[in-house]
Automatic annotation (TrEMBL):
Descriptive protein name: Alkyl transferase
Gene Ontology CC annotations of this record: chloroplast stroma
UniProt xrefs under Gene3D superfamilies: Decaprenyl diphosphate synthase-like
EC number: 2.5.1.-
InterPro entries in alphabetical order: UPP_synth-like, UPP_synth-like_CS, UPP_synth-like_sf
Pfam families named in the record: Prenyltransf
Source organism per UniProt: Buddleja alternifolia
TM ranges: none
GO biological process, one term: plastid membrane organization
Keyword annotations from UniProtKB, A to Z: Transferase
GO molecular-function terms, A-Z: ditrans,polycis-polyprenyl diphosphate synthase [(2E,6E)-farnesyl diphosphate specific] activity; magnesium ion binding
Length: 303
């Protein structure tokens, strides 16, 4: 897979160089039709460039977090400051969320979990709630569509949801189920979206599930340990259920009832920018900060 000098080449130069190399190989395959050659070339280039592309300056591949969690805060303040409707802020937030997913996938992050709607958000004005629910439905619908991959540059993303679905609109829950089902075998970035989610809710639902298993004789009280509780949390769908890094935007320095159980040893990063203005360079800055941390998990030095 490694190509000589690949790290030094500019993306344009790199593409050109790879193109030349692979054209040479392809021309040997005289029997292939032109269209097929081009298609293979595109696929091969995409794979090589994605895997080998140098990360933004300052980031080390071996220190990338596996799981990044984001509290996407500040949409309304961003909109109000500009004299716009709060809904515009949420729509901008959606754009930034899609961009973070694209970058996470490109840089080899495995799980991106986002706090889209908390169990406390129901106290917001009715118009805002309606706008949010229809925005979620719009986005979640695209996740379940056949051409989701085309919309997402083919990064083979899997989508899961966490939170209490019983209070969400039925039509939204239907689309969430479809999206989960359609993407469940995908091996790329795992996007976990908290909708009507909170950390306390998660601990409560895990407790209920464990108690009911004890009641039914499936589990003994002695079987209850941290590992078992972790397996009952809603992040159990992910290969890497525990966030290495939590980013919260908009200058607020709180967890606000996000993944309370899972965040025990997560590195926290608070960005001043509001979510709609959080850009690639801000994400890089957060990741650089993470890579400089000394993670000990309460014990010996980790790295
Ligand atoms: C799943 C999905 C498609 C999400 C995209 C839209 C999105 C980013 C939703 C987040 C909504 C929300 C409650 C943001 C918090 O900012 P805030 O509204 O509390 O802003 P404030 O702190 O300025 O009041």
């Amino acid at each position: 897979m490694a190509e000589e000098g690949i790290e030094k080449a500019s993306p344009a130069g790199l593409k050109e160089e790879l193109l030349q190399k692979h054209m040479a190989v392809m021309t040997a395959e005289e029997s292939l039709r032109e269209g097929l050659k081009a298609e293979l070339l595109e696929k091969h280039m995409a794979a090589v460039i994605t895997a080998e592309e140098a990360l933004p300056e300052g980031l080390k591949a071996e220190l990338m977090p596996k799981h990044v969690a984001v509290i996407m805060d500040g949409n309304r303040r961003w909109a109000r400051e500009r004299g716009m409707a709060v809904e515009v802020g949420h729509r901008e937030g959606r754009r930034v969320m899609a961009e973070l997913a694209r970058l996470s996938s490109l840089w080899g992050i495995k799980v991106l979990s986002v706090f889209a709607f908390s169990t406390e958000n129901w106290t917001r004005p009715r118009e805002e709630l309606e706008a949010l629910m229809s925005l979620y439905e719009e986005v979640v619908t695209t996740y379940g569509e056949e051409d989701f991959e085309r919309h997402n540059s083919g990064y083979n993303a899997r989508v899961s949801f966490m939170g209490d679905r019983s209070k969400l609109p039925e039509s939204l829950v239907e689309k969430m189920n479809i999206a989960e089902e359609k993407t469940k075998a995908n091996k790329g970035l795992h996007i976990i979206i908290g909708l009507n989610y909170s950390g306390r809710y998660d601990i409560m639902q895990a407790t209920r599930s464990i108690v009911s298993k004890v009641k039914d004789g499936i589990l003994q009280i002695e079987d209850i340990n941290e590992k078992l509780i972790s397996e009952e949390m809603e992040t159990n769908c992910a290969e890497f259920p525990v966030p290495d890094l939590l980013i919260r935007t908009s200058g607020e320095q709180r967890i606000s009832n996000f993944m309370l159980w899972q965040l025990a040893y997560t590195e926290l990063y608070f960005a001043e920018k509001k979510f709609p203005e959080f850009e690639e360079e801000d994400y890089v800055e957060a990741l650089i900060s993470f890579q400089k941390r000394d993670r000990r998990f309460g014990g010996m030095k980790y790295k």
